[in-house]
Each structure stands twice: as structure tokens, then as C-alpha cells.
Amino acid sequence: MSASSDNQRCVRRDLVASYALAALGHSEAESMKAHLPTCTECQQEYRALSAVTNTLFAWRGQSLPQSNPIWNQLVERISNQPD
Ligand SMILES: [Zn+2]
Fold this sequence. Notes:
mainly alpha
């Protein structure tokens, strides 16, 4: 066995993004939750990602209203247009 790679990467690091986006299954999320406090690499990744995801979630909540009044007005105006 040769440990040639000095730049070892945590195998779970790829799952951190899914965890930050709450896209993991329950058991995976649980094991990631248990793993995070033990792994500085994943902690760093998670911290960096949660800054982005928090912004994304906040931004998503503010823009994109469920119904767009301008669009509805437009549709109404077009469908009510006399020939
Ligand atoms: Zn890790």
C-alpha cells in the first residue's frame, strides 16, 4: 500500500453541498451531521457553502412571487383585446 497522495481529500466532502442544500436523504444527512464536527475540511466547505445557500434561500424568498400581477394583467389585456 502506497500513500502517495499528500493532498488527501475527504470522501464525504462532495456530500457537503447536498447537505447544505438539504438535498440529502435522512440517513445520509444524519451521518453528515455526525461527521461534520470531526472533519475540518468538511466544516470549511460547509461554512463556505452555507453563506451562499443562506443568500440563495433569502433571495429566493424575496423575488419570484407566487403570482406575478404584471403577467396576469398582460394575459388579461391580451385575452380581452377586441378584434
Ligand atoms: Zn469530511
